[in-house]
Specification:
It is a single chain. By secondary structure, the protein is mainly β. The chain has one domain. It has 1 helix and 11 strands. The chain has a 5-stranded antiparallel β-sheet, with helices on one face. A two-stranded antiparallel ribbon has the order 1-4. The two termini are 22 Å apart. The model has no long low-confidence stretch (mean pLDDT 86).
């Protein structure tokens, strides 16, 4: 099953392809294959955080911003031969963090609901 993240719907994103201090708005539609997601977590920011957009301007993630964190499987990873001074091959799994500001909670609830339909609660 795929989930489609639509452009210009108020979702901000962080992923491995950019520095962790940066955050970008979703400006084009893209699909995430839920079969490749190894871990999913949902949480709310307890305090305000500041990130930078790609132009270096500050973006404020206010308190109560909801987050969907998708950690992808090892099949969806990249490998490095040397990382932090360690020799050998290391796999770094890709991740996507989707930030939903408090005024955009409807989109967060919709996405969370779709993901939770794939979960068996025991």
């Amino acid at each position: 099953m795929f989930i489609k993240i639509k452009k210009n719907c108020g979702i901000l994103m962080e992923h491995n392809g950019i520095d962790k201090r940066h955050i970008v708005p979703v400006t084009s539609n893209f699909l995430i294959n839920l079969d490749l997601v190894a871990e999913a977590s949902f949480y709310t920011l307890k305090e305000e955080k500041t990130r930078l957009d790609l132009d270096g301007h500050q973006v404020i993630l206010e308190e109560h911003t909801s987050v969907v964190h998708l950690q992808m499987s090892y099949m969806y990873a990249f490998y490095t031969e040397n990382k932090n001074g360690k020799q050998g091959r290391m796999a770094e799994r890709q991740y996507y963090k989707l930030f939903f500001k408090p005024q955009n909670i409807g989109a967060y609830e919709e996405l969370r609901g779709v993901i939770e339909t794939q979960v068996a609660n025991l």
